[in-house]
Amino acid sequence: MKSLTKNDLTLLVAVAFLTLFAPFILNPFPEGSAMAQFNAGYPDLMQRFVIFGIFAIGFNILFGLTGYLSFGHAAFLGVGSYAAVWMFKLLSMNVIPAIILSVIVAGLFSLLIGFVSLRRSGIYFSILTLAFAQMMFALAYSVLTPITGGETGLQLALDDPRILGSSQTPEGNIPVPGLFGMEMRDSFDLELGSWVFTFNIGYYFCALVLIASFYLAIRIFRSPFGMMLRAVKSNQQRMNYTGLNTRPYTLAAFVISGMYAGLAGGLMASMDPLAGAERMQWTASGEVVLMTILGGAGTLIGPVLGAGFIKYFENIFSKINATILHEWFAFLPDGLEDFIVAILYPFIGKGWHLTLGILFMMVVIFLPGGLVEGGQRIRSWLQARKSKNGRPNGTTEPAE
Amino acid sequence: MSKTDVSRRGLLKTGALAGSGLALPTIFTAQSAHAYTNEPTGSSVTLGFNVPQTGPYADEGADELRAYQLAIEHLNGGGDGGMLNTFSSKALQGNGILGKEVKYVTGDTQTKSDAARASAKSMIEKDGAVMITGGSSSGVAVAVQALCQEAGVIFMAGLTHSNDTTGKDKRANGFRHFFNSYMSGAALAPVLANAYGKDRKAYHLTADYNWGYTTEEAVRSSTEAMGWETVAAVKTPLTQTDFSSYIAPVLQSGADTLILNHYGGNMVNSLTNAVQFGLRDKQVNGKDFQIVVPLYSRLMAKGAGANVKGIFGSTNWHWSLQDEGSKAFVRSFGTKYGFPPSQAAHTCYVQTLLYADAVQRAGSFAPCAVAEALEGYEFDGLGNGKTLYRAEDHQCFKDVLVVKGKENPTSEFDLLEIVEVTPVEQVTYAPDHPQFSGGALGTCNNGA
Question: Which residues form the signal peptide (chain B) (predicted)?
């Protein structure tokens, strides 16, 4: 087994650092201050960051490497969630079997859908996957209501069998998902001065899975298999003419990314034991495409950044309402305050889609490589400046 | 690679740091200081208003939010007090709840259970809300209710009409003031029998999801008990916008009544299609063809325009009611916003007052204490007459309104007229009624 190159290792360590210290990084503002609105360090959102990060990493293995744009990836996420919740209902509240089953089930579904869809490429492939996903959504929403819970979603109940666990806790409640006795929703608060940092078991579980998935993605990117996938992206026809059958490679990539989606779905259900059909809707599939492109398709870290970006907007910006805006600008004269609030209002609260859309457009127009390209540009700009400033007269001056 | 060594050490260091970071807080943990989730310790208490601000029910969500803001104003002693003056319980003083100023946070459910749960979770985990309320669909209500049960906060359901919310999916921490499918059926059937006779043949078009199923079942069983016959019940996809292909077979079936178990945009479209097909001018079996819509809302009536004229349906509450509570609410809502409130606004306003009152009477925000104060509680003066919060399933029992599309509306809000106020006895059912079977309340959860 070859070890990682220095760059990849730095990247992995950076991701590990960011995820493990997320409770600090995401809560930069003290509790109770006006800026606390922008804190994102609460368990649910942190979990979402890493879960959608995993989802996007998996999607990127397909889209970023082979260029096959799947518009139905949320279907695998949904299937994974349903599998996990059924495991909670029937077997036990331990998350391990649930997640294993969700990965397997998502893998089977992606094998089936991939086998059919990969007969076509380009837009036809996208439409096929979209059609399959919408079909699965429609089935889950109504026809399969006994299995999926339909509109209400699949939920746990007090009278579920749970063969290896208990149907209900001694207090008469539904048990919560856990890992050998550690409950996923348990958290510890650390108060430092006026800052409060929350450490959640479920989050750290997801974070470890993210680091592992990220490592696996690096290996896939750097492997001969990954090279083959990139070759498919650059010129599939030429590969076919050389007598190479690319279908097995693309199918493998499709199944792997489907399994990633299933893993994300299983984790989602483990953090919050409910599976709803909306998870499979085309908007959810479109979201992961946005995440990947926003962050930088084909790069390793890009999709994770994109996922974090979109989830931040969805959860933080959507909660700013007019009252909060008025509070912020209360120091201004009344007329001006109302004017500024009126201008900003369409972009916050329910208008978060608008803000995100504008940002997305700017990224696509000015940074076609996504946020990662933005980072690279800033770095090269800094380096250029340093090298220019660094030796104006060739000697190093001591700082004064 | 020679660099691997150093970085591995770096990794180990990171791991050790993270480990100590994890272990440290167990010493300083503040969790045990709280007796229940989000115990309010300061001078204020936060409630979470989780309503659809985008998506198909955004209009209803906006009206719910208006009602919540009004309720907060009244609870904190502002405005004219609204229904606080007519409410039979006088525990609330207009100085907040238990002397704490009431604050609120809002979130967007997007009418998706996932988004609704995410938003409710952030209210509980980030903003410290002790109670979550709102929503305009049963799927969301059931999902958020289960979440609140897990997290140990109270859920006061907004607009949710499916039997399941207080039937198979009921939870000890969840409470519903709104009426349900069974009540609609039970209230509508006698009125329909009076108006249209007892030997009708009904054809159901049902939206293909949980609410549609329970409504169809409820209307079907109560009309069949009156002597009606059900010719067919056809499910329509929720995303359907053109119902012509579903309407055409209705006439061939020999049915003389069409029942549209649709809500929101579905109902607007299916009713419009049915009227355009001229169903209402037809004669079948020697009777005029009729259309019935089991659940009405003002926004739907507005969307369907002139097509609703003369069509029967049911609602939870209507602003034209003349009791003191309704008048007080319509007055303060109208003064603040310039138009009358919808039934969604009413139920949300009432739920907030009921929660606040229960806390005040219980003397604690602890969910179990609040639940105990609400269970079996009888009250009056909140617009629906004498009402009981039944302990067995946390459903409110009150009079139900049977309404009809108004022939000569005087304004865009005056679209429905009340045909009958069905007394509560007629819509009451046993807690173990087959349409509500299969669930268990469980025990209330205080969280930690």
Answer: 1-35
The closest of B309, B238, B290, B294 to B269, measured between CA atoms, is B238
The CATH number of domain B182-315 is 1.10.10.10: no
CA distances from A344 to A35, A322, A333 (A): 17, 9, 16
Whether A110 maps to a domain, the answer reads yes
Residues from chain B that touch A315, judged by Cβ atoms under 8 A, are 118-119, 122
Give the predicted TM-score (pTM) of the model.
Answer: 0.85
Residue A323, domain member (yes or no): no
Q: How far apart are CA B235 and CA B208, in angstroms?
A: 5
Of B53, B105, B143, the CB nearest to A276: B143
Number of structural domains, chain A? 1
Of B3, B18, B445, the CB nearest to A173: B445
ipTM over 0.90: no
CB atoms within 10 A of CB A170: 7
For strands B201-207 and B257-261, give the pairing. parallel
CATH homologous superfamily, domain B44-179+319-398: Response regulator (3.40.50.2300)
- Are the beta carbons of B67 and B346 closer than 8 angstroms? yes
Distance CA A245, CA A243 (A): 6
Interchain proximity A157–B439, CB inside 8 Å = yes
Contact call for residues B270 and B241 (beta carbons, < 8 A)? no
Å from A167 to nearest chain B CA? Answer: 12
Q: How many CB pairs under 8 A join A and B?
A: 167
The CATH 3.40.50.2300 portion of chain B extends over: 44-179+319-398, 182-315
Closest approach of A323 to chain B, Cα-based (Å): 10
Tell if the CB–CB gap between B54 and A353 is shorter than 8 Å.
yes
* Domain membership flag for residue A32: no
Shortest Cα distance from B193 to chain A (angstroms)?
Answer: 32
Beta-strand relationship, A178-179 and A182-183: antiparallel
Smallest CA–CA distance, residue A13 to chain B, in Å, is 7
Which of A42, A156, A350 is the closest to B122 by Cβ? Answer: A42
Q: Round to the nearest angstrom and report the end-to-end CA distance of chain B.
A: 50
Per-residue pLDDT tens digits for B117-164:
888 988 998 888 999 999 888 888 988 998 999 888 999 999 999 998
Contacts of A198 in chain B (CB under 8 A): 125
Provide the residue-wise pLDDT of chain A in tens; the chain has 400 residues. 456 788 888 889 988 998 888 888 888 888 777 777 788 888 888 898 999 999 999 999 999 899 899 998 999 999 999 999 999 999 888 899 999 999 999 999 999 999 999 998 889 999 999 999 999 998 888 888 888 887 778 888 877 888 877 777 777 778 888 888 778 877 787 877 778 888 888 899 999 999 999 999 999 999 999 999 999 999 888 989 999 999 999 999 999 999 999 999 999 999 888 888 888 888 889 889 988 888 888 888 888 889 988 888 888 877 777 777 777 777 878 888 888 888 888 777 777 788 888 888 888 898 888 888 888 899 899 988 887 765 555 555 555 4
| A279 contacts in chain B (CB < 8 Å) | 114
CB contact under 8 A, A152 and B164: yes
If you search the block for the tokens 């009405």, which residue do you land on? Answer: B296
Nearest to B54 among A13, A155, A350 (CB): A350
Inspect the interface and report whether the beta carbons of A319 and B58 lie closer than 8 Å: no
Which residues in chain A touch residue B142, judged by CB atoms under 8 angstroms apart?
152-153, 155
In this complex, the residue of B18, B53, B139 whose CB is nearest that of residue A151 is B139
Distance between CA atoms of residues B176 and B397, nearest Å:
10
To test the contact with chain A by mutation, choose from B24, B57, B121, B165 the residue with the greatest count of A C-beta atoms within 10 A, namely B121
Domain of A243 in residue numbering reads as: 6-27+40-281
Other CB atoms within 10 Å distance of the CB of residue B429: 18
Using CB atoms, pick whichever of B11, B209, B439 lies closest to residue A142.
B209
